[in-house]
Please model this.
Amino acid sequence: MDEDEVFAFSKKIAVPYDLVAQTKQMGRLPVVQFAAGGIVTPADAALMMQLGCDGVFVGSEIFNSSDPYKRVRGITQAVRHYNDPHVLVETSTGLADAMAGLNLNEDRIEQF
Model:
């Protein structure tokens, strides 16, 4: 679709030209996609960004960790630099207990 066709199409569907041109350039609708739930480590956040998300939400599991500031800072850096493995390693170093309360080494049955 060339410039004239984009302009004609935007008039036909009564949508601002800039929005149609942006959609054409991006190759998708300009809708923000966020990931939420289970994002606890910088690696989780980086994976969501690599899969095409525009951002991530962090939940209460972050704030219940032993050092919430360090974990949130690591996730923020991972979102910014999700394609740089050196930054991901640096931000992930020293983060203990990724999922507090989940220990796969224990052999126990929980009763509900």
About this structure: The longest strand covers residues 34-35.
